[in-house]
Amino acid sequence: MEYIDRGICGERNGGCARLGITDWLADVPNLRNPGQIVEVRFKNTRRDYYRNVNDLNLLPGDLVAVEANPGHDIGVVSLTGDLVFEQMKKHKVSFINGEFRKIYRKAKPVDIDKWREAITLEHKTMISSRQIAADLRLNMKIGDVEYQGDKTKAIFYYIADERVDFRQLIKILADQFHIRIEMKQIGARQEAGRIGGIGPCGRELCCSTWISNFISVTTNSARYQDISMNPQKLAGQCGKLKCCLNFEVDTYLDAQRDFPPTNIPLETEKGRFIFQKADILSGIYWYSAQSGEAAPTLVPIPVQKVKEILRMNSAGKRADKMVMETQQPREKEQETFQNMAGQESISRFDKKEPSRKRKKSSRKPGYRRGPQ
């Protein structure tokens, strides 16, 4: 469906890969879920689960009209088969009277046209609602608006630090836009996931591509990984600590489980050495002599050697010598390909070609060489 890939998915969802799912059970026969429960994706990260009561032949990417309260909504089928049950364990499933909502039909051209009209109203409605909330002096920020497919209802996503009395706001919005209003409070991480963006790593935000359950992040994760406690570098686009700080913290905890303490100086014959930094994954501590130098020389010492020196210090002895290990530069690997015109160099376009100046002729003006 070309209109889905190039039109609706691009306008509504910021790309079809928003929280995409790889169906690793696609080649396995559906035993538990023979096409009955289907996952349907709506704007950005919102998704829900519906029952295929009419036994429609649905595939990922199909537009369907589903049951809503009130009326109907339009969504994109994102997952079918047995993997739906695994996804239901991670997400909250909405029920009506204890039952799944229904899929009415595949979306008709009339439904799609009406849905497109609703999409075009979302940005304008969000700007107007922000102005109304500011006039009412409500301490809240409306970050996104999502219209229902039949244009009878709209969900207003907002952020607020405190409890907000928005009853007057709902009355004004209902009178101005002539729709049913639903207010839904979200956090800063959820807002970043809905809006999307590019992170400092150069890739799309994790919260808008694959993270569905947010785990609390603390500054201890940065301390365990020996990361500089710079708030500007530790904070993500949502203003909170980056979720990726939790990705490798377990690896660092396992690596430094047997590491010696860093708050004890090393006593040697050459003087006292103070801990400066650590290369956790390489198992190396960096020390410097206790002196008044502005830029002291760093000495790399393996963790095992640090343990040995600390045992000697606890016995009242000083280390007579220290193994000064320096990081030897790796030998340049032999190229297995031929470098054609420096094509792997980033600065290859910065080289200036030498200017070619024409040699001045020594002939007198007016002289013309005749035929030989």
Describe the structure.
The chain is an alpha+beta fold and 372 residues long. Among the domains are: 2-107, no CATH class; 266-314, no CATH class. It has nine helices and twelve strands. Helix 3 (109-135) crosses helix 4. It is elongated and about 85 Å long. The chain starts with a helix and ends in a 58-residue tail after the last helix.
Number of helices: 9
| Spatial separation of the terminal alpha carbons | 76 Å
Question: Beta-strand level of the residues, as a percent range?
Answer: 15-25%
How much is the radius of gyration in Å?
32 Å
Uncertain segments are 1-17, 323-330
Overall mean pLDDT score?
Answer: 80
What proportion of the residues is helical, as a percent range?
25-40%
The ordered H/E elements are HEEEEHEHEEHEHHHHEEEEH
Structure in a nutshell:
The protein has 372 residues and is an alpha+beta fold.
